[in-house]
Records
---
Amino acid sequence: MAHYENQSDMFKQRAENCKKNGDRLYAQAMEAKERGDKEKYNQYMAQAQTQYKMQKENEAKAKEHAGKTWK
């Protein structure tokens, strides 16, 4: 656990990564929609929504674990 200061920091970083992945997948979904590829659009959009859901879950866990340490 050397990469994180505490548990809250870990969840915050996970939330940031989920947001980045969600944004990337959303952009891919929009590109697929513009191309008319409905199958890829649905696939990327579902993945983006999952990432945004995970972001919210990790943000909630970060608040829950605020002030806790690894020890």
---
Amino acid sequence: MATMAILMVIGLAGCGTQAPGDPQPAAAPQYPDFLGPKIVSKLAYLDSLRTIDPCGYLDPAALDRIARPASIGADGEYNSCTAAFGTEVGPKRIAKVEFDMGMINQPGFGTPVDVNGTTIRVADAGGEFCSAHLQFDDQQAVAIRVFTAPLAPRTDLCPEAVDIATASIPLLGTRPSRAGSTHAHIDTQLSRLDACDVLQTLSQGHPDLDAGGLNPWGCWFRLDRFDESTQQQIAFLRATDSHIGKGMSGDELTEIGGFPAKYLAGTGRYSASCELMVGVDAQRRTKREQITGPDIDIELIRINTTGGGCDNAEATATELVRLYKLLG
């Protein structure tokens, strides 16, 4: 009986081991392969754009026809570039020129202007600014916007917008590199982060998600493609630290992974929504300095959720901050 018991133990132990010749269990698929070919294709498109410096599509000579810019670089979302003149210039009191990626022009949008076979679609915003849109590729358009200074008299800025857009046409076939760019705040740690990488963690238990969008420096996704309440929008920004300081009623200050953050929960019919900002390179300042001192431009992660409240936004922010730190 003792011998039989020993043999049974050996036999059971053998059931839990794998012989050297047996097939090995398949490794779990990693991001983005587990998302399926359609989403992988959309994310690959974003990957191909993330290395681009949008400032490289603004022709310096065309800008100089207005005035020599005081600065050219990131200002706002990272899919844009701003050439700022520092002060209003010329009789039209022009303040800045912006280049924005990620547009989709609706049929019939703007006034078409033909330039040697290329269509520029022009739209005047009441004299405050004028935008000139160009098709970038088969998925998106880009916009060049010329702005007057705040409180300046309204004027026709479309000739300048069309002139700069015309100079951008031959540049759209190039890929100006974000890495090593000399433009301000373009080649940064945050600009290299793939925001959709959070789906490696967040997608668990959600086999029917959708993701993509047109912003390589952010991510749009729904954990359930048919449920708008599972939608989230991530964007990276270069903006003032007032976005993470105490502001309007309802703002809540917190920390995410050691970085200062602020969230604003939705109210009423939007009570399930939330906007959360994280300042990933924010300088530490005392409360008094935050109130009395000048704003500081910093890098920010912005997360907007349509459902699940700020708990969902915080979970996404926590994972994004973890991924951000891995790049450092």
